[in-house]
Design goal:
2 copies of one chain form a homodimer. Chain A is an alpha+beta fold. Chain A is built from 6 helices and 10 strands; from the N terminus they run αααββββαββαβαβββ. Chain A binds a DNA duplex through α3. Chains A, B: Residues 11-78 form the HTH gntR-type domain.
Chain lengths: 253, 253
DNA sequence: AAGTGGTCTAGACCACATG
DNA sequence: ATGTGGTCTAGACCACTTT
């Protein structure tokens, strides 16, 4: 024959690059190790920097690489499993929940949330801001919308805002009997605020977990939590979750 | 004073573009409507095509747009909620599950899955391929790994492969008593095979749902399901899920 | 054949972190 | 000051769908 009649559908360069890099990561690199810079890598592979970046972007999306402006590109550790929507339903802020309250303000929620909250469109609700840290790294940022009707006894609390008030709202929530909770996960991108909180650039991919807490047949609270998609694997249902390993990938010295 | 001393941190053009486009989508466009082509849009906004594309990519990632090569860019409908990990644990292939079996082969699973499956590294297992369609659109593709030990009575089945054998394997699974299941969700990108199955380009963002089915204290099956991240919102726990609406967005005529 | 989005290039400049 | 990744440009060509 002579010519190998394959390549009738030549795969894009960045795709091939990604494959090569993935194999290199699996076999020749250690977690935490820094890669050559983009200009050198591009030259080494004989492609334009933009093409190389296309491959690196995908690898970062898959949690294999971590890139930081001004610093460099490093090999990322395996994603950490973070548990969401535990089997035994529980209010946020209860014992053994991984969050810590940051702030609380009284605000009118975005129009997009009016329906699931069952509040009037212009009705102000308590907005509790919480953050979640795992292994010393911020992994999620949450906005918890609590209609005033869900925490009727919120009096005698002098703090009009701040972490103290946030904890007070969460404490009052526990008094309600939780019927059930509804969860949803979808892909999103970090807004300016979440990006700062998660130590990422705006637009970074995030997993958005929306939880509706139902009590007495009504939505007593609505949580919108954004998790770093590059570093997190969300586990739910029963304990733990499944560990997936890439390759040899030793620990960097 | 004079100059508005803001813009000390000027936001990137593509970010601003994304904001403008989002507002336009919310107020001036209908679901299914086609946008002007990229060259025209770029010219209209006075930016390079690559910059415009950066904005469009993010909007597609967020499920607001749908782009198809050779066709154009259209306004995407709201994401559809697809239920995963139903509350009442059940084996795959049971009554009222949304999947349909496609194929089944006997293969050695990728090394990365050996540990969660608890099989020997070189042990072949049944690999059932299933696909899931919702509203006439493919939304997910699954590989279900079933160790031979989990389906001991798989004899008298003459079909060595194909959909018939796949259904047989699933049927045999029901005989085991399911202890519990462990779920995890993470972000990934479609490989060549999944991309074809999901009607997307390779590298498209997907939500990977890994489920480990536990019976008699051992992993009796392992499912790796990849969902289209652009069109799907995964719901779990109790029924339904939370509906989020963007804006007016009328239905296209 | 025409029109669309997808890939690729070779540059330039900017924002950020570090020495 | 230097080096990194992030943004942006103005072009070119390719793969695909539709007419």
């Amino acid at each position: 024959m002579g010519t190998t009649q394959l390549e009738s559908v030549p795969e894009p360069k960045y795709w091939h690059l990604k494959t090569v890099l993935t194999e290199a990561l699996d076999s020749e690199f250690s977690v935490g190790e820094i890669l050559p810079n983009e200009r050198d890598l591009a030259a080494r592979f004989g492609v334009a920097r933009a093409t190389l970046r296309q491959a690196l972007e995908q690898l970062e999306l898959e949690g294999r690489l971590q890139r930081r402006r001004g610093v460099g590109t490093t090999v990322a550790p395996p994603r950490m499993g973070v548990s969401v929507g535990s089997e035994q339903h529980a209010w946020p802020g209860g014992p053994d929940d991984a969050w810590h309250a940051v702030d609380c303000r009284l605000e009118v929620p975005p129009a997009a949330l009016a329906e699931p909250l069952v509040t009037g469109s212009d009705e102000a609700v308590h907005v509790v801001r919480r953050s979640r840290v795992s292994r010393g790294q911020p992994v999620a940022s949450e906005l918890l919308y609590v209609p005033a009707a869900s925490v009727p006894d919120l009096s005698g609390i002098d703090a009009p805002s701040g972490a103290a008030r946030a904890r007070a709202v969460l404490r009052e929530l526990q008094h309600l009997e939780l019927e059930r909770q509804e969860n949803a996960v979808e892909l999103g991108s970090a807004g300016a605020a979440e990006a700062r909180e998660l130590d990422r650039l705006p637009g970074a991919p995030v997993l958005v977990v929306t939880t509706r807490y139902i009590a007495r047949g009504r939505a007593a609270a609505l949580s919108v939590a954004t998790y770093r998609a590059d570093t997190c694997r969300l586990t739910f249902g029963d304990s733990g979750g499944v560990e997936i390993h890439h390759g040899p990938e030793r620990q960097a010295s």
